[in-house]
Amino acid sequence: MSRHRNNLCLILAWLAALLHGGVGMQFVHAGIVTFGAGGDTFNVQFLDIANVGNAADGTGYGSVSYTYRVGSTEVSNAMIAVYNVLNPGDQISIADASSKAAQSIAFHEAAMFVNWMNTVTGNDIAYKIVQVDVDGSPEFVVQEWDSVNDPDDYNAANPFRSKRALYALPTIDEYYKAAYYDAATDSYSLYTTGSDTAPNAVASGTAANTAVYNADFPAASPWSDPAAVDQAGGLSFYGAMGLGGNVTELSETGVLDNSDGLFYRVALGGGFADPVSYLAANTQNSGGQEYADFEADLSTGFRVYQIEDFGSVVPEPGSLLLLTTAALLNAGGRLYRRRTAEV
Length: 343
What we know:
- By secondary structure, the chain is an alpha+beta fold.
- It has a single domain (3-329), classed as paralog of FGE (formylglycine-generating enzyme).
- Helices cover 16% and strands 20% of the residues.
- It has five helices and 15 strands.
- The longest helix is centred in the N-terminal third of the chain and has 17 residues, at 3-19.
- The chain is globular, with a radius of gyration of 19 Å.
- It starts with a helix and ends in a 14-residue tail after the last helix.
């Protein structure tokens, strides 16, 4: 299905919702998208990140030259449970089907999930996932698109992500802007809760300037699991929850290790067992965590972004309604290692 067809479906769904008394409608800056089929579906709210051409922070990160959207929460076990039902041949291991943030997720698993989110909504996949031999063991990795063999997908600025995909995992700049940038003041905060003061550590909740992390590091973490994705602390300037703490969020950004030929992805924002320094803007990608595409630890999770230039004007609150009909149209042990990241 083309994007033009997809946009037409959005308009038709909006009109249908109005004719039926607004059942299921929610007024947001960007939109709510339904993924799945039949009785197995879930919704993701995406928030506009506009303010095109913003300057980078002093760290060098955060400047993005296009508008895009960030998922308002991290991906939950319940969302992946829907994926598993509809993809019996490509399962992603989860502890349960709860609303807690999915954890122990490897990058290639997050890429599988995102590829499915694209295809189930009639779009093109984002990532080329292949199996390779690593020290005698078969492992899945995400390879770059090739300008010769994949001309419709290849993007020199980001060869890992197909330029035809709508849903993707973030680059560090996309994450950084969504997490720390304040468009009203054209500045960056130190923490993802819109403050330069360290957030209060909580096990769960939605209070302003709180986050789910270990306040007593390096002692044992006071909480052993992430919180529910809608109880993961205070919001960012753009209204996203849990960009700092709860689970570390896998990104496309990373570094090639010439010693083993593997690409290591940076996980951003810190997790429930990490110290507050892992949540801070000035420590992203410097002393944080990196993982090969098949590696994970207890706190690795992810969030989905919607990558398309929606224009430079953000609607006023309550002025735009988007509702998709994707459902109608479609009618574990892991390795991990922490490395100092420097891209």
